[in-house]
Design goal:
- This protein is of the alpha+beta class.
- Helix content is about 35%, strand content about 20%.
- The strands form five sheets. It has a six-stranded mixed beta sheet.
- Helix 1 crosses helix 12.
- The longest helix is centred in the last third of the chain and has 18 residues.
Length: about 425
């Protein structure tokens, strides 16, 4: 199949539009707005760090008007329309997707039954019995037991066992209280018909591969390894893979052959990109608008989450947006170029800078620890940007539940965007 050819300008326009970011915060407030975002992106990564807002909340805040994290909690823990599973890292997904993500549960269950559950059988039976009798419990609800080595280091036997049972799909997440997890029997959380629906390993891997293209919109076939987590080997099975393991390249070729993915050549971008077949009209519309020189209407500023699907593919950010982005939260402080929890700034279809905010509820303020602008962007020269940035900061302050912006020593930004109480 010959690739569609589009300009860089059309690709940028397509991405920000299909990501529901043009304009920002354009989906209706409430549960329906969140449902629309999940319908478009499929899944959103979860990360517990909350210094500037948790990742999934930032993703939704960027797209849903007056976003309140309580709305997502309602969909997760009350209505059970969303659930947590490993897709590209730990993610939130529509519960209807559960049969397509059983592979991770099944794989962990085989591993743990052969080793961990056998070594800790008494603890496993004890925890399950209490949860069966008492309902959702967290690690603090059990008596202390000795520590053991776990994935990231020593942790309590109770916590490790609860996590292992959750990984195996025996327990599920009933709710979170902050970052504390309460577990219940999986059959008490989700419908039996959904839990009993079976898809083959190949079907599940194919579905998860397609989900990466659905979330991003214009991926290629290479890039950082985390883009393809949980799908399988790229070109050939590994020695540790079971017989018959399907490769990512096989699944990708199948998706192209079946017409679910359409190849795209983007001006100035190396390698072929792929778009969902039902989004081709949207791609063509972006090219027509770019050809006519039509600017994006209502250009707005977005504080992008560090794991927002738009910024997944760092080489594409560089070639298409001329923007280098590394989430430096795991980079040693002395090696950071910018800061610990830095958010890219999207202005229309341009990535114009970075900002490092902290939600400080003790002082009722957003503290800005740093701001960095692209070399070719001067914020003070664009009055429309100044207005849009103030609107974005006001929306972010509301999201954070605070009423003040504190730019600290950043005198120029304080003069441009205002400091102190945020207008409502």
């Amino acid at each position: 199949m010959q690739p569609l050819t589009i300009s860089a300008a059309a690709a940028r326009r397509f991405l920000v539009t299909r990501h529901l970011l043009a304009p920002a915060r354009n989906q209706a407030a409430g549960l329906d707005g969140i449902r629309v975002v999940f319908e478009r992106l499929g899944s959103i990564q979860f990360d517990p760090l909350a210094v500037a807002g948790r990742n999934h909340d930032l993703v939704l805040h960027a797209r849903v008007r007056d976003y309140d994290p309580a709305w997502t909690n309602e969909l997760l823990y009350e209505r059970r329309e969303l659930f947590e599973a490993y897709n590209k890292g730990l993610s939130l997904l529509p519960t209807s997707e559960l049969p397509w993500h059983r592979h991770t549960w099944d794989t962990f269950r085989v591993q743990h039954e052969a080793a961990y559950f056998t070594r800790h059988v008494e603890t496993v039976e004890h925890l399950l019995a209490r949860i069966r009798d008492e309902g959702p419990l967290c690690s603090l609800d059990f008596e202390r037991r000795p520590a053991l080595d776990w994935y990231w280091g020593p942790t309590s036997e109770v916590r490790a066992t609860l996590e292992a049972l959750s990984e195996a799909g025996i327990l599920g997440l009933a709710r979170r209280a902050g970052n504390r997890r309460y577990y219940d029997l999986i059959e008490r959380l989700y419908p039996a018909a959904l839990l009993s629906e079976e898809r083959s390993d190949r079907e599940q891997r194919r579905h998860r591969l397609l989900s990466r293209y659905r979330a991003h919109g214009l991926l290629g076939t290479t890039g950082q390894s985390e883009l393809w987590y949980g799908i399988g080997p790229a070109l050939r099975p590994r020695a540790t893979d079971p017989p018959g393991t399907v490769t990512r390249s096989e699944l990708h070729a199948e998706l192209v052959r079946d017409g679910e993915l359409v190849p795209v050549a983007v001006e100035g971008v190396r390698g072929t990109r792929y778009v969902l077949s039902d989004e081709v009209p949207e791609l063509r519309a972006a090219q027509e608008a770019a050809d006519r020189g039509h600017p994006l209407t209502d250009a707005s500023v977005v504080l992008l989450a560090p794991l927002d699907p738009l910024v997944w593919d760092r080489p594409l950010l560089h070639s298409l947006f001329d923007f280098d982005y590394v989430w430096e939260v795991y980079v040693p402080q002395q090696k950071r170029r910018w800061g610990y929890y830095v958010l890219p700034l999207l202005w229309g279809d341009r990535l114009v800078g970075r900002i490092e905010p902290r939600i400080d509820r003790a002082t009722g303020s957003i503290r800005i620890l740093g701001a960095w602008w692209q070399d070719d962007f001067e914020p003070r020269r664009d009055e429309a940007f100044i207005v849009a940035m103030r609107e974005a900061l006001a929306a972010y302050s509301s999201f954070g539940g605070v009423k003040r912006i504190d730019w600290g020593t950043h005198t120029s930004e304080r003069r441009l965007f205002g400091s102190g109480r945020v207008p409502t």
